[in-house]
Amino acid sequence: MQGTFLIQDWQESIQKQFDDGSKLSRAEIKQNYSGQIDGHSEVYYLMNYNTDGDACFCGFEYISGTISDKECKLELKHDGQFKNGVASSKFVVVNATPLKSLIGKTGHFESTESGQADYYIS
C-alpha cells in the first residue's frame, strides 16, 4: 500500500531542556491520509533533539479510515528521525481492525515538503 499524508496540526511541548541546547519533547500531530488509505490519524511522538536541531523519535499512530472501501482502524509503532530538514520513520502495524492480516506488516515514510510525506506499507 502507498500514498501520502498531510500534517493538519502539530502541537509540541518541551519536557526537558539541557544546558548544551539539546532537549526532550512530546508532540501530538493530526494528519489526513490519501492513496490506498483514505482517512485521518492521531500521532503521539516522544522526541530527542540534539544540539544541531536533528532528532530521533518514537511513538504510536492511530489511523481511522478506509482501505479498498473497507472501514478500518490501524495502530502503528514508529521509530524515526528528523535530519537535515527531512523526517522519516520505519513502522510496524501493531493492530488492525477488521483487517487482521495487516498486523506485523512493516512500512516507512519520508517527508517531502509543506508538511506532506509519502508512505509505503508492504
What this model shows, in words?
With 122 residues, the protein is mostly beta strands. The protein has one domain: SO1590-like (AOC barrel-like, Beta Barrel), CATH 2.40.350. It contains no helices and 8 strands. The chain has strands spanning 2-17, 23-35, 37-49, 55-67, 70-83, 86-97, 106-111, 116-121. Strands 1-2-3-4-5-6-7-8 form an 8-stranded antiparallel beta barrel.
In short:
By secondary structure, this protein is mainly β. It is elongated, with a radius of gyration of 15 Å.
* Sheet with the most strands, sense and barrel status: 8 strands, antiparallel, barrel
* CATH topology group: AOC barrel-like
Q: What is the overall number of helices?
A: 0
Q: Percent of residues in helical segments?
A: under 10%
Give unreliable regions as ranges.
Answer: none
Strand content: over 45%
CATH superfamily: SO1590-like
Distance between the termini: 6 Å
Quickly give the structural class.
mainly beta
Radius of gyration (CA) equals: 15 Å
Residue-averaged pLDDT:
96
Going by CATH, the architecture would be Beta Barrel
**Which overall shape is indicated by the principal axes computed on the Cα atoms?**
elongated
Report the CATH C-level class: Mainly Beta
Helix and strand element order: EEEEEEEE
Distinctive features:
single chain; 122 residues; mainly beta; AOC barrel-like; eight-stranded antiparallel β-barrel; 0% helix
Helices, strands, pairings?
Blueprint: E1 2-17, E2 23-35, E3 37-49, E4 55-67, E5 70-83, E6 86-97, E7 106-111, E8 116-121
